[in-house]
Design goal:
Layout: H1 9-43, H2 53-84
Helix pairs in contact: 1-2
Length: 85
Amino acid sequence: MSAGQKLTADQAHQVLERVRNEVQQQTLQELFVKISERCFDACVTKPGSKLSSSEQKCLTQCMDRYVDTMTVVSQTMQKRGEQEQ
């Protein structure tokens, strides 16, 4: 497509959807990094070459709590969005 051509409504919608998907994916990646850092800071008190079993358990539980919370929040937001439509 040359610089002088305009996008059709369908093409503009497709581009917008791609941008939204990429932003959503990047946001999820950033959230995962933040969660990982927070759980690591909370669970690993003395970093070493290996995680102790208690550190592994703590990390698993911490990540599970965040995932469960994000699932509830996501489902709630989706339901609200459907109700608004």
